[in-house]
Amino acid sequence: MDFNFELLKTFRLVAAHENYTRVADIMGVNQGTVSRQMRRLEEIAGTELLVSFPKGVRLTDAGRYVAEQMDERLFNFEEIFTRARDLKSSTSGPLQVVTAMFGISWLAPHLSEFLAENPGIELIMSTDESPMLQNTSHFSGTYVSLTPIPPPRDTGLIWQEIFEFSFYPYAHISYTQKHGMPRTFDDLDNHKIIGYRWSRAYASVDYNASNPLLFVGREGQKPRRPAMEVDDVMACKVLVENGVGIGFLPLFHVINTQLVPVLQGIYDKNLFLKRKAYYVHPPYLRGNQRVQKLIKLMKEKVTQETLNFDNQWDLR
Predict the structure, then answer these.
(1) Measured CA distances, 55 to 12, 13, 21, 22, 30 (Å)
(2) Can you tell me the distance from the alpha carbon of 58 to that of 287, in angstroms, rounded to the nearest whole number?
(3) Which of 72, 103, 177, 276 gives 146 a disulfide partner, CB atoms 3.0 to 4.6 angstroms apart?
(4) pLDDT tens-digit readout, 68-91
């Protein structure tokens, strides 16, 4: 293997500083020299070791592996690079899933099956960091995100729609036992309705479409006043489950609950709020087997559930 150990010295600096300009200053060369050396190292390794971000570069899984192994096994670099190449096709290792609580709720019923079929994958579920998804420099390693946020205009990430979901009116059994079941839109005048008032991140979501129970049957009149408003679907679910009022929820949030459909038979899902969900990952993980296995599972479950959910709600 044609190899120059100067490339490894440069790589160690890049791994430490994650910035070509800073490394070039340390080495007393120009940035182009550092960039060319790293491209040459990747050619020798046969896999991508670094990925560009707005403020520098980050190590891929393979790059992190090479950096960790260098001190112990510097002269056995051919074995190191062979193992680094294998990381891309490996079905073993960590996989971070970055998602809001809506994604956890949808994925949870399927994770036991996924882990049983892929015992080598170590799942790491991250919810607190999901708002940082659009900051492409925030994440590294092997990760995939499930988000309802539409792709930003300029993104370095693969942002692919995976399914569209509708919202439906639901109430808890305890609520209907106490207040009765509304049978018509006019009946809603005498019920407690939980409304949505979205945060700035979802400012583009239409208020009227998000709150059809406030407007339906009130043409030419003032809309109904909500009993309270929330800015989060999971918060709405918790309130509905506690009998606070009637809420507007996606079907996958009501699985294995005591929530019952309201206005079944007259409510038309096509007239009101629909949202889209997207899976997101960086381009360098396009061929990563762990990422692709989770995406495959999500696509399979979407196909099955779409039919089941529609049949469940459309019963007459």
Answers:
(1) 18, 16, 10, 11, 17
(2) 18
(3) 103
(4) 877 555 545 555 665 566 566 678
In angstroms, rounded to a whole number, what is the distance separating the alpha carbons of residues 130 and 111?
19
Say which residue, 223 or 157, is predicted with more confidence.
Answer: 223
Q: What pLDDT digit, counting tens, does each position of 124-153 carry?
A: 988 876 666 665 555 667 889 998 888 887
Per residue in 27-38, pLDDT tens?
888 999 999 999
Structure token digits, residue 115: 């882990």
**Looking at the predicted structure, is the pLDDT value of residue 172 above 80?**
yes
Residue 255, both tokens: 């699985």
Q: Provide the strand spans (E) within the chain.
A: 50-53, 56-59, 93-99, 121-126, 143-147, 158-172, 194-196, 228-230, 247-250, 259-261, 274-281
* pLDDT on residue 106: 85
Contact of 97 with 144, CB cutoff 8 Å? yes
Higher pLDDT, 301 or 180: 180
Distance separating alpha carbons of residues 66 and 68, to the nearest angstrom: 5
Tokens 């459309």 identify what position? 314
Classify residue 129 by burial, with Cβ atoms within 10 Å: 0-12, 13-18, 19+: middle
Q: What would the DSSP string read from start to end of 151-163?
A: PPSS-SSEEEEEE
CA–CA distances in Å: residue 313 to residues 147, 254, 256, 273, 290: 24, 12, 15, 16, 34
CA atoms 44, 49, 51, 52: torsion sign: negative
The one-letter amino acid at 219? E
Q: Which domains does the chain have, with CATH numbers?
A: 5-88 (1.10.10.10), 93-163+276-313 (3.40.190.10), 165-275 (3.40.190.10)
